[in-house]
Amino acid sequence: MSKREEYEARTEELLLPIAQECGVRIYDVEYVKEGSDWYLRAFIDKDGGVGINDCEAVSRILSDRLDEEDFIPDAYILEVSSPGLGRALKKDRHLAQSLGQEVEVKLFAPVDRCKEFVGILEGFDDKQVSILENGALRSFERGNIAIIRLTLDF
Fold first, then answer.
1. What CATH architecture does domain 3-81 belong to?
2. CA–CA distance from 129 to each of 93, 95, 119, 142 (Å)?
3. Which tens digits make up the pLDDT trace of 53-85?
4. Which of 15, 52, 83, 138 could cysteine-pair with 43, CB 3.0–4.6 Å?
5. Residue 98 · residue 89 · CB < 8 Å
6. Are strands 145-150 and 102-111 parallel, antiparallel or unpaired?
7. How many C-beta neighbours within 10 Å does residue 36 have?
8. pTM of the complete model
């Protein structure tokens, strides 16, 4: 397990009881370097969406718990937020929750001269993801997918 994966997993363990106490669900946790700064991001969600007060409550408690545990030696910036409307579907649980919804699939390399596809998320397994695009079922190897996200419908 990499340093990043270890920090994300330990943070998620600390976050679980905090999320339950605050009436939210954990969507994702990521530890990333952007420029010269490290960021520890916790994405939370709940039915009806999260607000600034939810983010603030979780952030205060999580910050205190992270200070107590002190398992990340690097200086980092803690951010707690909603995953947003066009949320990335990174994990199997995200895909499972989004079955039947419209998604955008972006590929690393083109297929049929196209790198972006939009359709209804039909299914997935360890090796591929399938969408229904204009009535036709399309499957993509997971290793070829750069990102899958929910489409924004305004």
1. 2-Layer Sandwich (3.30)
2. 13, 9, 11, 6
3. 999 999 999 999 999 999 999 999 999 999 988
4. 83
5. yes
6. antiparallel
7. 5
8. 0.81
Q: Where in the chain is the domain with CATH 3.30.300.70?
A: 3-81
Q: Minimal CA–CA distance to 41: which of 54, 31, 26, 49?
A: 31
State the residue for tokens 């990335």. 88
CB atoms within 10 A of CB 24: 22
Residue spans in the chain of domains classed CATH 2.30.30.100: 92-150
* Number of residues assigned to the chain: 154
The one-letter amino acid code at 77 reads I
Condensed to tens digits (0 to 9), the pLDDT of residues 33-60 reads 999 999 999 999 999 999 999 999 999 9
Class of domain 92-150: mainly beta
